[in-house]
Amino acid sequence: MSDAPIGIFDSGVGGLTVARAVLDQLPHEPVLYVGDTSRGPYGPRPIAQVRAFALDVMDTLVAEGVKLLVIACNSASSAVLRDARERYDVPVVEVIQPAVRRAVAATRNGHVGVIGTRATVTSRAYEDSFAAAPQLRITAQACPRFVEFVEAGVTHGPELEQAAHEYLDPVRAAGVDTLVLGCTHYPLLTGVISYVMGEDVTLVSSAEETAKDVYRVLAAQRLMRADTLPPPRHQFRSTGDARPFRELGRRFLGPEVSSVEETTELPVIRHDPSGLGEETYLGRGEAVAP
Asked: Residue 104 has what pLDDT?
């Protein structure tokens, strides 16, 4: 089991920021990353649908024998974390709590901003997580187009700056001194976000903190890979077109993304989002409705 890979998934390339941090902190551990690009981004979708899609991917990863699951997507974390920890025998690490812990430690004036997808902001998952620190004031803002820019490979330019001002000017005017990047795509836009928010605002990305949680869990449960084993082999998969994923992956993560397997025929389990109906198995070659 200790030689099994760490399973990481996101709706697209944003979770590669988490994968990069995991590879940096645990260079001897193999990673199996799935980008659910055929159905992403998750952010604009209803929470029940995000839950169903996330369970599809996690069921597949667990069936393939990963030793730990990382939900490298804030929308999925807000929709499915409790279900995942009850459903699977392997440990589950997510991205919300690590970011919250870091923000609580970082803020100086007690006013924290949170930016995320519509699904994450609507779920109020961050406000619920900050409830343990009632002295803090939280200002949340949905930034739906940020994911579109990242998935298109756009990290600078006038159109992006205009959108950043539209989303972030009200957050800055509210007086936050710490801003949580509540989507794993957003660290790839750190330049423009910092430019608009100003150098006096601390940006908190969950990637590094999440990787620390992965390290702690593997160490505590004695799941670290033996040093005597050969160098790890990483796998990257896309449920949609592999070519843009591969290009963006190499740009955003690095040479570790040497190849990407296109898994448009990945067998998954379709869950009734209401939780009341029966699950339907989708075999290879069957279409997955968006």
From this structure: 97
**Residue-level pLDDT at 285:** 31
Q: Which of 31, 66, 71, 73 is catalytic?
A: 73
Helix, strand, coil % in the chain, rounded to nearest 5: 45, 15, 40
Give buried/exposed letters for 147-165 (b at 16+ CB in 10 A, else e): bebbbeeeeeeeebeebbe
Ranges of the chain with pLDDT below 70 = 1, 255-259, 262-290
Closest CA to 71 of 80, 141, 148: 80
Report d(CA 107, CA 40) in Å as an integer: 32
The closest of 28, 14, 11 to 214, measured between CA atoms, is 28
73 is catalytic: yes
pLDDT at 1: 61
Alpha helices in 124-262 (DSSP H): 125-129, 144-151, 158-173, 190-197, 206-220, 242-252
User: Using CA atoms, how far apart are residues 245 and 16, in angstroms rounded to an integer?
Assistant: 11
215 token code pair: 């390290």
CB 143 within 8 A of CB 167: yes
For residue 143, indicate whether it is catalytic. Answer: no
The span from the CA of 161 to the CA of 62, in Å, is: 40
CA dihedral 224, 86, 72, 219 (to 10 degrees): -20
Options 183, 203, 207, 268, the catalytic residue: 183
Other Cβ atoms closer than 10 A to 120: 28
The per-residue pLDDT for range 150-162, each reduced to its tens digit, is 989 999 999 999 9
**In this structure, what token pair is assigned to residue 210?**
């999440």
pTM over the 0.90 mark: no
